[in-house]
Amino acid sequence: MHDKINNIQCEALTRQASGRTYRLIDKTDQSCGGTAIAINIGDRYFMATAGHVISKDHKYEIVLRNKKAQSIDCFQACQFDTDTDVGLLEISKEKKHFIDSWVTVSDIYTDIDQHKKNDVVIVGYPGEYITQASRVRITKNTSVEFRTCETLCYLSFTLPMEEWPTEGIKNQTIEERDIFIDFDPGGNMFTSPPNTVDISPADSLQCPKLPGMSGGGIWLLESEEEGVIWKPSIKLIGIQHSAFKKDQWMRGTLINCWLALVAKKYPDLN
Fold first, then answer.
1. Helix and strand tally (H, E) in the chain?
2. In CATH, what number does 2-265 get?
3. What pLDDT, on the 0 to 100 scale, is given for residue 121?
4. I need a surface site. Which of 83, 161, 197, 232 has the fewest CB within 10 A?
């Protein structure tokens, strides 16, 4: 399916995935603490991320990718689960407008087939960019400088359970929790400069940098339907949390586990 995607479709996929993805910044040293996905369920607003990103302490602020470079440094709640490595930060209703676009329940898919290869999109952490001066915009928020530009996306596929790695795994793999992605640094990457549909060729890009990608989304590329004009769209199926670059795989947690964390903390949430 990868070879059927043209430049304009890549642009659409980039906007769908990266438009709801944000950086978590460690306020102590302004380093990238991880990545988060904006999700709205009912009357609650969350940043979904990897559990280890927020498990040590609660000292992160979200640096938005919008033109105003607004930030949020106070959350309604902070919750994480070490067994599944998922976490959430709740944003107040008063600050929900700081987020440009939200993932909703209709954008989430929970019935992934773990026994076949599924085409997916992985997002490099927001603010990652190709070092070309014409493509870099710099905005300032207080005394801290934030770079905002295109987000690097990586087109790949899930590994069937039969091909899951057995070496380099810290804990036992579980079908109901884990998801593995082929992560070839020389693979199929694309990026989209702001306000254009010009997609740079893959050989001019670098693989998304692993530090800071924890907490980012794994997005299922929906299949083409016979007899219907195909408009590529994606569904959120998982959250990234680790990778082993040498053997070219990335590991994540199924979004079902994050939804279970939400249900546990907010049992009355529809």
1. 3, 16
2. 2.40.10.120
3. 83
4. 83
